[in-house]
User: Fold this.
Amino acid sequence: MKNTTGFDYQALYGDIHNHCNISYTYGSLDDAIKNAALRLDFASITGNASWPDMDEHDPRIHHIVQFHQRGFAKVHNNWDNYLERISKGETAHQIVLFPGYEIHSNEHGDYTIVGLKPSTRMILADSPQELRQRIFKENLEEGYLIFPHHIGYRQGARGVNWNSFENPLTPLVEIASAHGFAEEDLSDRPFLHSMGPQQHQGSMRYELGLGHQFGVIANTDHHSAHPGSYGHGVTGIWASSDRREDVWESLNAKRTWAMTGDLMQLKFAVEISCKDRFVVILVNQEILKSSLPAQLITLNYLRQNKGIVGTCLCFQSVKWRRNSRGRRKQLFGLN
Ligand SMILES: [Zn+2]
Assistant:
């Protein structure tokens, strides 16, 4: 195994895509913050903010259109208040809270936007490309992450459109949430929402096959103020510390892994022997499932290589630790 001595990171856990009544879903923001702090080190509670290509003129969905428009207006009108409340919540509950919002799109698929700064502005656009351009134009690229979610749905029905997927600002893809798992098109939990069914072209494996590089995350996309709810999705990161800047740095550096249930700790080293091409290494899910007391979706590691020669993974026993805030956590992992 590649030398891991000097591996000076700590495992932290977060959910950076979930909802409450700041827009059109349920449960208070204060409850969402309290619930997040029960289990997580960092979170972003997401305001549903716009849907540029919503079919506003179809009378059959008039009630749905109104429901969404009311929710969008609510989050716009209360954005400053939202920022203030999460700043206070951060201090009161000792958790890192990033501001966040969401743009729906039939054409491009839905995207979550997360901001580093407590004063993050809501920047909207009709497409991810246009959104990137606006962020860059204002020299704000250090402070925004955007990522597609519930990617497995059909393209055109709010599933991912890989033609719109590009870096920068998009190092991560949400591969699991309460909507279902999109690691591949046949998964333990198929997409169940009315926007379903899922399609092969919306899977993580399909996109890796096209040669794109990204880190994987899982979030709950909970709609009732329960970020971190068990069984829906949680992201692990290796971070230098639990300061917000270090959490942000590790997300951007793609030191991430996606889980569905128990909080696990995943260390890995990859060595590959190939030249001039991208190599994807998938951890054998059967090994992980039989060796861990919880379900891990997958670990994917993608690297452009120059003469690397092998891979290695092993397991470390269950242990307890306290994080810097004294919160007790059970960890399962690999090293
Ligand atoms: Zn959402």
Observations:
- The first helix runs from residue 29 to 39.
